[in-house]
Amino acid sequence: MVTWTKRRIEGWGRFPTTEAQCARPERWSEVQSALQDRDGEHILAHGLGRSYGDAALLTGGRVVLTRRLDRLLAFDPDTGWIRAEAGVSLEEVNNLFVPRGFFPPVVPGTQFVTLGGALAADIHGKNHHVHGSFGDHVRNVELLTADGRIVVTDRDHEPELFEATLGGMGLTGLILAMDLRLMRIESPAIEIETVRVENLDHFFEVSAESAKWPYTVSWIDCLARGRHMGRGVFMRGRHAPAGAQPGGALLERLKKFADPILDVSAFETNWLLNRFSIQAFNETYFRLHRPGTETAVVPIAPFFFPLDMVRGWNKLYGSRGMMQYQPVVPHDPERRAMRGVLEAISKSGFASFLAVIKEFGDVQHGGLSFPRPGVTLALDFANHGKPLHDLMDHMDDIVLDAGGRLYLAKDARMTRDRFRRMYPEWQAWKAVRDRWDPTGVFSSDQARRLGLVGDPVPTRGAKAVAS
Ligand SMILES: Cc1cc2nc3c(=O)[nH]c(=O)nc-3n(C[C@H](O)[C@H](O)[C@H](O)COP(=O)(O)OP(=O)(O)OC[C@H]3O[C@@H](n4cnc5c(N)ncnc54)[C@H](O)[C@@H]3O)c2cc1C
Fold first, then answer.
1. 143 lines ligand 1 (CB under 6 A)
2. Is residue 16 part of a domain?
3. In 3D, which of 370, 379, 269 has the Cα closest to residue 314?
4. Considering its fold, how many domains does the chain have in total?
5. What is the C-alpha to C-alpha distance for residues 46 and 59, in angstroms, rounded to an integer?
6. Mean predicted confidence (pLDDT) in 131-146
């Protein structure tokens, strides 16, 4: 038996928010009971809620909070394979294994995600161009499917189910556990080089030059216009050799810059982040980096997870929440789509505080997995309702024209029609999903909005501001 309790749930963007009957099972038998005792409602897994929009929400449905499924089941120190339950977080993996010389093969910009959430979104990291996405490092998955069975699926056994589960946004079943291969590292430090990038063409030059670095990403000033459009700070990094100690003038300057920012996390306000403060931040951050290349050795956490140091930073966007916009577009020597998107933002009067740009490598999965060869941009906006949604619709058209797509883990608003054009594989994916779940047991508000499973949610969460 499980106990269902009505709770408000939200994603990291805090838009939309909704209510659902939630259970917090600790054992697999309790998860099976939850599946049985759902009174005919849809059901969905919810990890650490770090997807931004409605991917982990299920209005009026049954939501399984997976965080107590947090056992490490096996570890082979010779190969780095771990077997762990889906509610284990990357933070827990890091705390346990970094001191032992292992690191997850792919990490996102926060370590507060569960392994289940990482696989369901087939997350990518700064090393996509060399290591692919999270699913590339998972050998098998134990999945509770709609008929109540626990199916062990891998690339040989029920391979279609395995593929559909990587990036399947929780819609093929509830991931209970997986085998994930950690990689060896010699030290808990990263050697970095930062290169001040003067415009978009310069970004692509530096990115091409940096292809052999395992980790690459660039912060971008999304408000810079004209010949400065696309200026930013490119970061490339690699795991440091044994004995390396953090240090360097750049590290000292970055620390001084970051300290006051870390203090603002206690406010739940929307006046701090506006176009003017963002413009001032961008200018200061850009000038903090000297023209050319600088080097430093930095600890792992601030390199990979800088935002985790500001607990609850999503509240800085105020009660209306925020929205992420993350497209990937194929390579184009003239960078038309990227220029189009950046131009649309700078003309709109909106500004993104956190904007990053990165080139993906060639590895891609089918189904709903996001990464495709090309360039991806991730932007955060305070939720200003309709005018912002109009801007995003306009950017969607630019992305679609270029043959690109949006990341489902960041999405709260894409239309069904645009989704279908961005993810032409959706029908093949749905055919596999429907074979395993013919009556539509697993669903989410996002899946209902996108026409994947179930009817659309009639009314959005209390904060679904549309004016
Ligand atoms: C600051 C920040 C930075 C980020 N950076 C990146 C990045 O660099 N790259 C990237 O790819 N993503 C990034 N993300 C997004 C994040 O990695 C994904 O949204 C991830 O899925 C969140 O994991 P979670 O445990 O919080 O899952 P949730 O948000 O709770 O759920 C996400 C999806 O996974 C499903 N799910 C969760 N657990 C299970 C399970 N056990 N079984 C089946 N389905 C499950 C849910 O149903 C839902 O569809 C970032 C997010 C934040 C907040």
1. no
2. no
3. 269
4. 1
5. 13
6. 98
User: DSSP character for 89?
Assistant: B
- Kindly state the average pLDDT of the residues 7-31: 97
Ligand 1 mean position, distance from CA 143 (Å)? 17
What is the average per-residue pLDDT within 217-241? 94
Buried b (16+ CB within 10 A) or exposed e, 315-352: bbbbebbbbbbbbbbeeeeebebbebbbebbbebebbb
Q: Is any atom of ligand 1 closer than 6 Å to the C-beta of 64? A: no
Ligand 1 centre to CA of 323 (Å) is: 15
Residue 121 CA: nearest ligand 1 atom is 21
Tallying the residues shown for the chain, one arrives at: 467
Q: How far is the CA of 12 from the centre of ligand 1 (A)?
A: 9
378 part of a folded domain: yes
Cβ–ligand 1 contact at 444 (below 6 Å): yes
**Ligand 1 nearest atom to the CA of residue 409, by list position:** 19
Amino acid at 187: S
Report how far ligand 1's centroid is from the alpha carbon of 407 (Å): 11
117 alpha carbon – ligand 1 mean position (Å): 4
Structural domain for 369, as ranges: 189-416
Is the residue at 258 inside a domain?
A: yes
Answer yes or no: are the C-beta atoms of 308 and 301 closer than 8 Å: yes
Q: Ligand 1 centroid vs 35 CA: distance in angstroms? A: 22
Helix (H) or strand (E) holding 91: helix 90-97
CA 362 from chain centre, in angstroms, equals 19
Which is it for strands 174-181 and 81-85: parallel, antiparallel or unpaired? antiparallel
My answer on whether omega of the bond before 424 falls inside 30° of 0, hence cis, is no
Instruction: Give the whole-angstrom CA distance, residue 154 versus residue 152.
Output: 7
CB of residue 144 inside a 6 A radius of ligand 1: no
Pocket test for ligand 1, best of 44, 50, 216, 446 (most atoms within 8 A of CB): 50
Beta carbon of 414 within 6 Å of any ligand 1 atom: no
Q: What percent of the chain has pLDDT over 90?
A: 81
The ligand 1 atom at the shortest distance from the C-alpha of residue 45 is 47
> Does residue 171 sit within a domain?
no
One DSSP character per residue, 190-211 reads: EEEEEEEE-SHHHHHHHHHHTT
Does 276 score more than 90 pLDDT?
Answer: no
> pLDDT tens digit string along 336-392?
999 999 999 989 989 888 899 999 999 999 999 999 999 999 999 999 999 999 999
The minimum-distance atom of ligand 1 relative to the CA of 308 is: 1
Q: So what's the pLDDT on residue 265?
A: 53
CATH of residue 385's domain is 3.30.70.2520
